[in-house]
Write a structure and sequence with these properties.
about 120 residues; homodimer; globular; mainly beta; about 10% helix; Ubiquitin-like (UB roll); amino-acid biosynthesis (chains A, B); EC 3.5.4.19 (chains A, B); PRib_AMP_CycHydrolase_dom (chains A, B)
């Protein structure tokens, strides 16, 4: 495994890309343990800065990400998880978190109703 | 324009994606002015944390990025620049900065010799 440069409290940014469609689904952060768990289990793990803990994508929603390859950038301070996404990546119900242009035009496809998946208390 | 949440010294992470091949080319940071310049000129601008200034991709190498669309994520704290890349995105000469797997296997394609483009003093 290449040495990684973790920063900002031991975190590394992770770009999540659909391995078939090449769509960018989301961006999140991982710490060293989350990267190791992702490698060893084949299921995407991240670190939540707000909840201050590791989370497995899909643990609440069922929208897991099966990780095929992990890529590293030239500076070794950013990763790509190439994934097979169950359901949708975004907690809003869109397939990708990047469902709008900077001008506010919605271009994404809504896959599920977040109230039904996460309940009314949010994600 | 959607309101953006800049953090870490007024910066927002930018994922750069080839608009045709959907390949993720690099990740960089932008401040508000860099985003505005990108919008108004159609050429990708970023903010260099080490040099503490705005830079236009390609200003030294000639490897400009013509920006088609800019996408925003659900939290409005991450962007995608969809670009048409001249030459290669990575200063190492590879088309994408993500030219290796986490295991250190090179999967990317080298497009240019960095010494010829940037000189021997680095980028």
């Amino acid at each position: 495994m290449l040495p990684l440069k973790f920063h900002e409290g031991g975190l590394i940014p992770v770009i999540v890309q659909d391995q078939k469609t090449r769509e960018v689904l989301m961006m999140a952060y991982a710490n060293e343990e989350a990267v190791r768990l992702t490698e060893s289990t084949g299921s995407a793990h991240y670190y939540s800065r707000s909840r201050k803990k590791i989370w497995k994508k899909g643990e609440e929603s069922g929208h897991f990400q099966k990780v095929g390859r992990i890529l590293v950038d030239c500076d070794e301070d950013c990763l790509i998880y190439e994934v097979e996404q169950t359901g949708a990546a975004c907690h809003t119900g869109y397939r990708t978190c990047f469902y709008r242009t900077l001008d506010g035009v919605t271009i994404g496809e809504k896959i599920f109703d977040p109230e039904k998946v996460y309940g009314k208390t949010g994600h």
